[in-house]
Structure prediction request, 124 residues.
Amino acid sequence: QVHLMESGGGSAQSGGSLRLSCAASGFTESDVCMAWFRQAPGKEREGVANVDSDGSISYADSVRGRFTVSQGAAQNTLQLDMNTLKPEDTAMYYCAAGTGRCGGLLLEIEYGYWGQGTQVTVSS
Prediction:
């Protein structure tokens, strides 16, 4: 059974930094793709960044240059370093995982497994 656990998040002031981490367990496949999504109150969930199963990385335009996604040292772990945070980054952040190629469009349908989410709040 696949399980995703997020950690990190919390509160920061505008211009500050936070780090999110995610660990996925239970995968028997080796070609796992992982991503971060977020959902702000009253808005649809949107893709933030991913690391595909071939190691390629994609970012949403809204975070490119400020956020850095990377694979952790352990297999099937993912980190998101968020810098120069803005109030509009306030959202529930979800870790997601899938198998095979998930592509760079950050589409929810490509990810079959989701974490419970961790809150990020940025104050101005």
Summary: The radius of gyration is 13 Å.
